[in-house]
Write a structure and sequence with these properties.
The chain has about 375 residues and is of the alpha/beta class. It is built from eleven helices and 13 strands. The mean pLDDT is about 95.
Length: about 375
């Protein structure tokens, strides 16, 4: 049986409840939601409403109308940035962002938006004071990743959000790795927007995500089309969530996302996080004891997400990952992980690294077998 340690890309396996929800939706509620008044269409719309309510509860959002379903976190981030920023605006981000943030910023910079990137330390961590110090009168937005998909570094989002709120600058959080693993409570932390994907720690299927938008923020819609409501007016005259959700929604994906959130809430977010964190500590300690293995990101005893990037001697990361897959049936990921700036911080941009990322269904036996496999690969390279 495969030891799956690529959960930072997509969680696998999915909970049985998620598979059942998607299957049931396709079999029984496959009508177009919000486009008809017949029973099946109403049932499909109800599934979307319930999942929207669950997503709002997960984040501590008071009004589920501020939850906008998207294709994934990338889609959500594009909506947030392109919907808010324009020529003459100033935006602050970091050098260690995923390309889901960096690439839209490149395009915005070409259209007249001024972009400033705060540098991290070699573990990928950002100092809040550096973010605040980068603000200008024209700063319209700060965007940063909560938990790195490369270094595992967790940024001090609460501290940064509080400081920005005092200056009336909204914070956009890329929560692709953190939603479902790190608790959010918008009643306590003034975050302007949160971009989430369903297929990672939220345990849902691929192709679904959502963006939380504070009621104090108004975005321009970046895609226009049919919404099934008030067809006679322009899209930007519509209320949330319709304003930002043109076209037919991914009802099966939304059903699966709702079931994934149910799984998290029933298992207990704190319990799931503690399980993954403990395995991450054991993985770090095990790999750290192997001669010739270089570990990256926060060190032993420091806070990190449930993933670890490493290299083995002079072996190419792609070779190590291929050997883990072919000879040990261990799924990992090698390369730059769509975040070249994080590899700049680690000093591995020209090489990349192997990443192992833990999910709720991994066990101590998985970790022990993986450490043993890496030790054998390292011994063979010497």
């Amino acid at each position: 049986m495969t030891i799956y340690l690529d959960n930072a890309a997509s969680s696998c396996p999915k909970p049985p409840e998620v598979i059942k929800a998607v299957d049931e939706c396709l079999r029984e509620y496959c009508a177009n939601p919000g486009r008809g008044a017949h029973r099946i269409a109403v049932a499909a719309a109800r599934i979307i409403y319930r999942s929207r309510e669950k997503a709002a509860k997960l984040l501590g959002a008071e009004d589920s109308a501020n939850i906008i379903f998207t294709q994934n976190a990338t889609d959500a981030l594009n909506l947030a940035m392109y919907g808010l920023l324009g020529p003459g605006d100033h935006v602050v981000s970091t050098t260690v962002e995923h390309n889901a943030v960096i690439r839209p910023l490149w395009v915005l910079a070409q259209s007249g938006v001024e972009v400033f990137l705060v540098a991290s330390d070699n573990a990928g961590r950002i100092e809040p004071g550096d973010v605040i110090g980068a603000l200008k009168p024209e700063t319209r937005l700060v965007v940063l990743t909560h938990a790195s998909n490369v270094t595992g570094a967790i940024q001090p989002v609460e501290e940064i959000a509080a400081a920005l709120a005092e200056r009336d600058v909204p914070l956009l959080v890329d929560a692709a790795q953190s939603a479902g693993s790190i608790a959010y409570d918008l009643r306590e932390t003034p975050i302007g927007m949160i971009a989430c994907t369903g297929h990672k720690s939220l345990m849902g299927p691929q192709g679904i995500g959502f963006l939380y938008i504070s009621p104090e923020i108004e975005l321009l819609s970046i895609r226009q089309g049919g919404t099934g409501t008030r067809s006679e007016v322009s899209q930007d005259e519509l209320a949330r969530p319709d304003r930002y959700e043109p076209g037919t929604l991914n009802t099966p994906g939304i059903a699966g996302l709702g079931a994934g959130i149910d799984f998290i809430m029933e298992a207990g977010p704190e319990s799931l996080a503690a399980h993954k964190d403990q395995l991450a500590v054991e993985l770090y300690d095990g790999l750290d004891a192997i001669a010739g293995v270089d570990l990256y990101g926060p060190g032993a005893g420091q806070q990190r997400g449930p993933l670890l990037s490493f290299n083995v001697g002079e072996l190419p990361p792609s070779s190590v990952a291929a050997t883990l897959d072919r000879e040990y049936d261990i799924a990992s990921r090698a390369g730059l992980h769509c975040a070249p700036g994080a590899h700049d911080a680690m000093g591995t941009r020209g090489r990349g690294a192997v990443r192992l990322s833990i999910g709720p269904f991994n066990t101590r036996e998985d970790i022990q077998a993986t450490v043993k496999a890496v030790a054998e690969i390292g011994a063979g390279a010497r």
